[in-house]
Each structure stands twice: as C-alpha cells, then as structure tokens.
Automatic annotation (TrEMBL):
N(1)-(5-phospho-beta-D-ribosyl)glycinamide binds at residues 30-32. It comes from Microvirga subterranea. HAMAP family: PurN. The record marks 163 as: Raises pKa of active site His. The gene is purN. This is Phosphoribosylglycinamide formyltransferase. Keywords: Purine biosynthesis, Transferase.
Length: 231
C-alpha cells in the first residue's frame, strides 16, 4: 500500500475549506432537497449540504437525508407557543452548526421578518412559477385558469414580502392542450431539480451576487435561445 500524496491531501483540504456549509429546510418528501444533495456530491461543487432541517418530525425527506449520510434534524413548530420562539430555535440550530447559507425546499412555513432579515442575502427559495407571476400557492391551477402558454419555476432570494425577492434563475416549460395541474407540475418539477442546484452553485461560487437589491452576474449569456408555445 502506498502512502497518500501530501500535496493532494492539502489540495483536497483546501478545496473543502472553500465550500459553503448549506442547510436545506423542508416540510415533506424533499425532492428538491435530493437534487441539491446529489449535485453537492460532484467534485468542485462550491457547497456542501451540512444539515437538513424540518418543522415536521414525520417528513419523509428526513429519512432520505439520513440515508445520504447527512445530519437530519426535526424542530416541531407545534412544540412552540409562538412563531417567534420556533424561529429562534431554528436560528440557534443553524448557527450552532456553522451554517452559512439556507435553501428552502418545500418548507411550508411563512417566515417572520425577524428570521428573514437575520438571514438576509443568505437564504434562497424555489417557487413553481415564473415570478412575479403567480406568487403564493396553487400556481399551476392559476396558470391554467389564466390561459398562459408558458409556465415555469424561479429561484430567488428570500425577502420579507412573499415570493418577491431578487431573481437568481428561471426555467420555462410550454403549457400544452390537455394539461392538468398534475401534468404541468410534473414537468416543472423536472426543471426545478436542474435549476436549483445550478442557481445555488452560481451564488456559492460568486458568479451571482446581490447588489443594491438585484442579482448581478459575473458573466453574461447569449440572447439567441427562446421557448415558444405553441412551437
């Protein structure tokens, strides 16, 4: 057996030091959580998933996180008399573990201004619509009712106003004849699983940053692409 190369060990250690410690907040099965965990396994990905935290002890995503070797913690919001005391426990758990950045992934709690401001610029969410269209819930139903021909998902920084933070990335899909809420949601979920890891990587690598309330990118992209529906 040969000894490990010290320079390689040092390089690997240095690389790990640059990775930002991420917590993912969930309330359910954690499908977007799983896509972030998988992406973070890739060499060179600029973030590591250090914690998965849920407000529901029975959340399926906690089991999936533990199976992936990640600490999974439940802080049951029902055990706290106020929203503020629950969020103080949440904040304490994140800080005790040295969390640097938070990803909301199906976390079904409206956060208070106190918590959002405490993590301002360090917390993102993925929303199933092309914001600023269809903020809030039942986005696919509303898109179908409005008759839009293009729908999608958005990764954005979290601000006190619901689903109103600076946009980091978006993905669009066509709405086709015969679509239901379920069929549309499934196609958009596929895009969420691609978009969220990409957006997180851009932020953690410094390729996307907040500046004066907007997201600024270190490099541009081509203007030739388009999604047309019908098309």
């Amino acid at each position: 057996m040969t000894a490990a190369n010290p320079s390689r060990r040092q390089a690997a250690s240095s690389s790990d030091m640059t990775r930002r410690r991420i917590a993912i907040l969930i309330s359910g099965r954690g499908s977007n959580m799983a896509s972030l965990i998988e992406a973070a396994r890739a060499p060179g990905y600029p973030a590591e998933v250090a914690l998965v935290l849920s407000n529901r002890p029975d959340a399926e995503g906690l089991v999936r996180a533990r199976e992936a070797g990640i600490e999974a913690l439940a802080i049951d919001h029902k055990a706290y008399s106020t929203r503020e005391s629950f969020e103080q426990a949440l904040d304490a758990a994140l800080r005790e573990r040295g969390i640097e950045f938070v990803c909301l992934a199906g976390f079904m709690r409206v956060l208070t201004n106190w918590f959002v401001e405490r993590w301002q610029g360090r917390m993102i969410n993925i929303h199933p619509s092309l914001l600023p269209l269809f903020r809030g819930t039942h986005t696919h139903r509303r898109a179908l009712e409005e008759g839009v021909l293009v729908h999608g998902c958005t990764v954005h920084f979290v601000v006190p106003e619901l689903d109103a933070g600076p946009i980091v990335a978006q993905a669009a899909v066509p709405v086709v004849p015969g679509d239901t809420e379920e069929s549309l949601a499934q196609r958009i979920l596929v895009q969420e699983h691609v978009l969220y890891p990409q957006a997180l990587a851009m932020i953690c690598s410094g390729r996307a940053r907040l500046e004066n309330g907007r997201v600024v990118f270190s490099q541009g992209w081509g203007a030739g692409g388009a999604l047309r529906s019908p098309g």
